[in-house]
Amino acid sequence: MTKLTENNPQGTANIADDRVLAAVHITKCKRCGREKTWNGDDILCPFQNSDVFGDNWCCGQLAKIRLIIENATDKEDSRIHYQYCEGQQYSTINVSDIELEETAESLYVTWYKSRGRTEGMWLMNRGYPPRKPKYEELQKIIEHYSLYCG
Ligand SMILES: [Zn+2]
């Protein structure tokens, strides 16, 4: 089995997991338009073959959500909560005013330090299990909070 390291996200392709199978290593995100401008690992975009959040590395769409969290936290926007604990970053974005495929109250997001992988994204709704967001739903959230994402 390929050794899995942070600098070798390709190694994760050996994990039997549908999140990983949908992901593709690329230097440009066709859907979100981000181009690779750094040395190191290529973009791993979950949205090239799938509409649903999955394993990733420096995907443009997910980077925009993280930018919103960062900028809103600087501005102390009460719709976005943020916590940092031992390098792990946790945030919830209020999405209750946004019309999504299924109703949701908030988007939960977590990642480690400033690493390329966004480890978790879940849409949360009262009384329902969390579900993974779809590309179009993230797009609506990005548009709703576009003042933080220019
Ligand atoms: Zn992408």
What this model shows, in words?
The protein has 150 residues and is an alpha+beta fold. It has one domain. Helix content is 19%, strand content 22%. The protein has helices at 18-21, 60-74, 135-144; strands at residues 24-26, 43-45, 80-85, 88-94, 106-112, 118-124. The strands form two sheets. The protein has a four-stranded antiparallel sheet with strand order 3-4-5-6, covered by helices on one side. A two-stranded antiparallel sheet has the order 1-2. A hairpin with a 2-residue loop joins strand 3 and strand 4. Helix 2 (60-74) runs parallel beside helix 3. It starts with 17 loop residues before the first helix and ends in a 6-residue tail after the last helix. Residues 29, 31-32, 45, 47, 59-61 line the site of zinc ion.
Bound molecules: zinc ion
Number of separate domains = 1
- Report on the biggest sheet: 4 strands, antiparallel
- Sum up the overall morphology in one term: globular
Task: Give a brief rundown of this model.
By secondary structure, the chain is α+β, with helices and mostly antiparallel strands. The chain is built from three helices and six strands, in the order H-E-E-H-E-E-E-E-H.
What's the topology here?
Elements: H1 18-21, E1 24-26, E2 43-45, H2 60-74, E3 80-85, E4 88-94, E5 106-112, E6 118-124, H3 135-144
Antiparallel strand pairs: 1-2, 3-4, 4-5, 5-6
Helix pairs in contact: 2-3
Bound molecules: zinc ion.
Zinc ion binds near residues 29, 32, 60 and 61.
